[in-house]
Amino acid sequence: MHFIKPKAFLSVMPRYIPTGLQMVYASGLAEISLGVALCFEATRTYAIWGIIAMLIIFLVVHWYMIVDKKFHEKFPKPVLWFRFFLQFGLMYWAYFYL
Length: 98
Hints:
Blueprint: H1 6-10, H2 20-37, H3 41-67, H4 77-96
Helix pairs in contact: 2-3, 3-4
């Protein structure tokens, strides 16, 4: 989706992150690469740590959506908080496979 609808991802990117569109493409490429790396035992551990790192970085985006009121019109606040805390569950899930 990062490559098909980059504007959707760009709209949730905090403005203080430089080169937003390039970051959208880079994160999409990283997600694909890490997903492929999960398929191979030799790279699986690196991929898991990479996924955990990405989820930590994505916390910035989820926090931005919580504090910026423009997102409160599109998404109920409980949904935004759920998405924020879901990242920690996903990190634990990934760590579980180390």
